[in-house]
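User: For a teaching handout, I'd like to show students what a predicted protein-ligand complex looks like in token form. I'll give you the sequence and the SMILES for pyridoxal-5'-phosphate. Please answer with just the structure.
Assistant: Understood, here is the input followed by the structure.
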Amino acid sequence: MAGAVLTIVAALDRIRERIASAGGDPERIRILAVAKGHPAERVQEVLAAGLVDVGESYAQELVAKADTVESYVRWHFIGNLQRNKVRHVAPFVHLWQSVDRLSLAGEIARQAPGASVLVQVNVSGVEHQGGVAPERVAAVVEGCGDLGLDVQGLMAIGPQGPETVVRAAFGSVRALADGLGLAECSMGMSADLEAAVAEGATMLRIGTALMGPRSSR
Ligand SMILES: *Cc1c(COP(=O)(O)O)cnc(C)c1O
């Protein structure tokens, strides 16, 4: 495990260099280790390297890993979530990042009253990635507030495409958040973190650049 931890520490250093070179403050931007497709041992190594925020896309994986790794992990749910899975992960989730409909928000509010959430915005036009259309974000944010949830910001998956297109998409998320008085913007992954940082991301969700390729599930 020691060697693997050193590899992750080195990867983390490189990510922090990339953040700085994009004009961000590596001390202030939160790095989430995205653990989907990686075993619990990898999560332990990430924790040993000093991170505490871990993202999961699948309810079953989250529950299995939460059972075996250190309990101080802050789990972030970042994937498409079915309502009937909410109660399984509710005991563990620190921040629900993929809230994109009020039916889901309602179930979260029932299982975890007052929970912290991000509303996911769809800026890529790719439907299966989830997210609310930009013009509906304000209504969903308001609806979450009415349910007693603590809306901390927005989450988005960047589009594929040239740097200018990616920057514009992330910039539109930051502008939406600012317009709604929301502080947090979770955007940017291994391949597009510079664009996200340049446009004001406060949280990056990093899998591959931190832990290498995922095993297929
Ligand atoms: C898998 C995933 C990531 C991490 O992707 P990498 O390219 O491996 O960094 C980030 N966000 C979401 C929503 C994901 O599903």
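For the handout, you might add this sentence: The chain has one domain: 2-211.
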